Amino acid sequence: MFRSPFLLFARYAHLLPQELVEERVTDFLNEFTNKREMLDGFLGEHGTNAAETWVINYGRAMMEVAENHLRSHMHELITMARAEPKKEAAE
Length: 91
Known about the structure:
This protein is mainly α. Helices cover 78% and strands 0% of the residues. It has one domain (16-80).
């Protein structure tokens, strides 16, 4: 049903501890950045073919939209996650 590990994670973020959600969101943002940089490298290497350039630019645009949306709305995922009780309160 879910082709994207991130969408699967986001769907169930409300069941996870906030600390884990914040950590994974940061990881996903780093992955977006790394993939976009990789596509930039491909464009430099393979950008001579118009079709290849179009496909690479399409991939970059999709990654940029996803990254911008996550940066703008990551607080919503983190907020809906379970707050863990403070260690001092649990003792």
